[in-house]
Amino acid sequence: MRLLIADDHELLRDTLRLFLAREEAIEVEFESDLPSALRAIETRGPFDLVLLDYSMPGMNGLEGLKSTLDAGNDVKVAIISGVASPDVADRVLALGASGFLPKALPAKTLANAVRFMAAGEIYVPVQFLRRAKDETTSLPASSQLLPREVEVLRGLCAGKTNKEIARDMNVQEPTVKLYVKTLFRKIGVRNRTQAALYAKEFGFS
């Protein structure tokens, strides 16, 4: 996997360089501004994924994201930021990006997210998908999920279909579909991939 990270913070670049060097089959290149990143895409591409810092030189808000997505070759692009809000994350996805990564993500989670996005999945941490009025509240604890919902969540994490989960739980498939719908609302995710990520990050797998 070839990864291009464009960020003007030297400390972050050095940290990511050290960490990702330990990951198997990930080759990483770095740039410090958008023009350099666009030149790298044109002259040294293709890359499996491009990570752009939201506030680095040349970005001009989300204009830089648009320019990178328009660079051709169906390049997959995600935004990484330490300051952007959930509203910005929504706009990033609406423009067709592969995801949004807060800089506060644990290194291992970031590496997993990179692999997901390079494989064609969409990634945004669940806390950026919540629509509760108080977005600073903590994520739902296991005690806030029904035992059956936890079973469904574990099944999703294992990659099982609704039919397979229904067989494991000895219930009808429409019942599982209802559990899935309720579960997604409770934990603030939009699809099965995000639910599986939630399960792994918060110890349900």
Report on the architecture of this protein.
This protein has 205 residues and is α/β, with parallel strands linked by helices. It folds into two domains: 123 residues, Rossmann fold (3-Layer(aba) Sandwich); 60 residues, Orthogonal Bundle (Arc Repressor Mutant, subunit A), CATH 1.10.10. The chain is built from nine helices and five strands. A five-stranded parallel sheet has the order 2-1-3-4-5, sandwiched between helices. Helix 4 links the parallel strand 4 and strand 5. The longest helix is centred in the C-terminal third of the chain and has 15 residues. It is elongated, with a radius of gyration of 18 Å. The chain starts with a strand and ends with a helix. About 6% of the residues have low confidence.
Summarize, please:
With 205 residues, the protein is of the alpha/beta class. It has helices at 10-20, 34-44, 63-69, 86-94, 107-118, 147-157, 162-169, 173-187, 192-201, and strands spanning 2-6, 27-31, 49-53, 77-81, 99-102.
Identify the notable features of this structure and list them briefly.
205 residues, Arc Repressor Mutant, subunit A, elongated, 5 strands, alpha/beta, EvgA-like, 12% strand, DNA binding, Rossmann fold, DNA-binding, Sig_transdc_resp-reg_receiver, 2 domains
